[in-house]
Amino acid sequence: MDAIDQFGRQAVSVLTSGRLAAALDLDREPARVRARYTASAGSGERFYTSEDGTAGQKLLLARRLVEAGVRCVSVSFSDFDTHSRNFPRMRNLVPIVDHALHALITDLDDRGMLGDVAVVAWGEFGRTPRVNKDGGRDHWPEVGPALLAGGGIRGGRVVGRTDRLGATVVSRPVTYQEVVATLYHCLGIAAGQVTLPDPTAGRSTSSTARSRSAN
Prior knowledge:
By secondary structure, the protein is an alpha+beta fold. It contains 6 helices and 6 strands, in the order αααααββββββα. It has helices at residues 6-16, 19-23, 31-36, 57-67, 86-110, 176-186; strands at residues 118-122, 126-127, 139-140, 146-150, 161-162, 169-171. The chain is globular.
């Protein structure tokens, strides 16, 4: 245990102190707070992989985990992979996610936590500007949306612009690496100066990375 660095110690402390189990117990939250994170389903079509109105409570769990000492929390919402019936499915899912994000950001603000918690909402790629024969939108690596809030990030801005179809970037492209560097900055890590040792160093490996825009 003495060999574990301070971040490893912090993680082990969270896992073994009982704070994690307490954070995951939503019954400890007042009913009005749980209701704040619960949305009515949209007017569209719920696909078999989709979320229901209670999905926003995952962000309530995220807030509770942060309060328990967790530094990074990842939450996913399913059914954005709309290769078919994109529009009725989005009419169901988008209001749920919109409600959840609003609940999280306003809740953090009400608790005085928003300045210390950075929120990023994004996917790993965008969707094709053109609709396919099944009414869906396929994978599109050229442009994807991202929303950042809190953590000292100056809000009220749109960075980057696409053409009218959302197909290509026409000004100020933003790479995924830039967004990650911003999150490192929020964590107090100088991404341009800190070197993280590669535990696999010495192995013969090669890889090719391509920056993709996230506007």
